[in-house]
Amino acid sequence: MPDTPTIAPRPEQDYLAFLAQGRFMIQRSRSSGRHVFYPRVAEPLTGATDLEWVPASGFGTVYATSVVRQRDPAQSYNVALIDLVEGPRMMSRVEGIAPDAVRIGMKVQARVAAEGDGFIVVFDPVA
């Protein structure tokens, strides 16, 4: 009986493919129900490999922020750690307001944005 080739999981490539479709997806362990970000092959706490892709709600709260100041004419921008409502924390930036106006505790909503040759998740303040 010939060996059946196994397909190795490619979580980062899958994540980037979802972004290219305009979809913000994260992983969730079927056994524990915990959400995982950044994409990986196993849940960090349990080692469970039963991760599935689910749509992220897109809502979160700024946990920490810093302004990256640029020389003119480049624009300054912020770098923020966002606590997703699903539990994971991710690094991104908050757009739509001045970098200095981003505050810890601010409610934000994700969107997929084109950047360079690919796509990333950025956040906008929730009114």
Mind sketching the topology for me?
Blueprint: H1 11-20, E1 25-29, E2 35-36, E3 51-55, E4 59-68, E5 77-84, E6 89-92, E7 107-115, E8 118-125
Antiparallel strand pairs: 1-2, 1-3, 4-5, 4-7, 5-6, 7-8
Task: Describe this protein's structure.
By secondary structure, the protein is mainly beta. The chain is 8% helix and 40% strand. It contains 1 helix and 8 strands. The chain has a 5-stranded antiparallel beta sheet. Strands 2-1-3 form a 3-stranded antiparallel beta sheet, covered by helices on one side. A hairpin with a 2-residue loop joins β7 and β8. It is globular, with a radius of gyration of 17 Å. The model has no long low-confidence stretch (mean pLDDT 93).
- Percent of residues in beta strands: 35-45%
Query: Would you count the extended β strands for me?
Result: 8
- Class computed from helices, strands and strand pairing: mainly beta
What string gives the helices and strands in order?
HEEEEEEEE
Radius of gyration: 17 Å
Q: Helicity level, as a percent range?
A: under 10%
Number of helices: 1
Spatial gap, N to C terminus: 61 Å
Task: Assign an overall shape.
Answer: globular
Strand numbers in spatial order across the main sheet: 6-5-4-7-8
Report the average pLDDT across residues.
Answer: 93
Uncertain stretches: none
Major sheet description: 5 strands, antiparallel
